[in-house]
Task: structure prediction
Amino acid sequence: MSDELTALRDELEGAVLAAGSLEALEDVRVRALGRRGAVTELMKSLGKAAPEERRERGQALNRLKQAVADAIDARKEALAQSELERRLAEERIDITLPVRPAPEGSLHPISQTIDEITQIFGEMGFRWAEGPDIEDDWYNFTALNMPPEHPARQEMDTFYLVGEAGSRPVLRTHTSPVQIRTMLDKPPPLRVIVPGRTYRSDHDATHSPMFHQVEGLAIGRSIHMGHLKGCLIAFCRAFFGVADLPVRFRPSHFPFTEPSAEVDIGCTREGGQLRIGAGGDWLEILGSGMVHPKVIANGGLDPEEWQGFAFGMGIERIAMLKYGIPDLRTMYDSDLRWLRHYGFRPLDIPGLIAEAAE
Ligand code: DAH
Result:
């Protein structure tokens, strides 16, 4: 190859290597091999060469053309490769991002607490049951061993409606009437948990005219006080997430249980701050007892054959205790700022029994 062609080849190969993008490379190609390109022009001028030079120069020009084309191809591949690497690095998908978008709503602490309670008792074989908010006087009181004029009615006597034919429906004052409905409806043995709304004419920082309770009922042939204690101790420990939480059964009285016990959990109130767990103090959280034989009979069962335990607790109260909510009334204000602070993400169900039992 002549010096002139060698110099041209070096120059073009240099330009090819210097091309930093596919566009710049295309410019070099056009300048060298395009219709007016340097190499093309030289080939066109071949006809003017002396016949004896023509063959040799023709071959040299072909080699030059081939060399430049090869260099362009190699450079093209290198550029495509680094472009791919750049995109792979830049467009990487972060698979560690959460699959669900950020939640736009949250669960009210009452819903969350009901979920937690039913989850814990669900693991002990209790099933969900429900009853009506507008209840019959008989289910709400009489069947629960509170006949008309019974003094225990006084505490709960509230919100009567005008019913048909002289009946007096009442907004249920507790979830206990569902004990009767369940016994009449389902064959024993049975275990149910009954969350729901209840009503009483009370209104202050710790009482609201509408509030929530959860009732529990277990009926069997040989259920005894030991089952009551075991279930409720396990529940308290799981719910509050304190594996060695002290739980105390204090004799009490309810017309629908015999014997009856109120359940307290251990706490401290040092420095005016309530802390649930071991400590010298006690906090009452629920009522319980062995179902009164009259109540068993009102549920359509033979009290000589069937017995069981029941309990009832206020949901707001234990939600306030667990989540440090100071004023009951804020639960019903529908203030979004409050809900964002105290609300829960759906499917967050902490405090399972398995964890506390460890
Ligand atoms: N029904 C009671 C109340 O509203 C709570 C209660 C106490 C329910 C003892 C029970 C029980 O099932 O056994 O105050």
Q: What stands out?
A: The pocket of 3,4-dihydroxyphenylalanine is lined by residues 174, 176, 215, 254, 257, 287-289, 310-312 (CB under 6 Å).
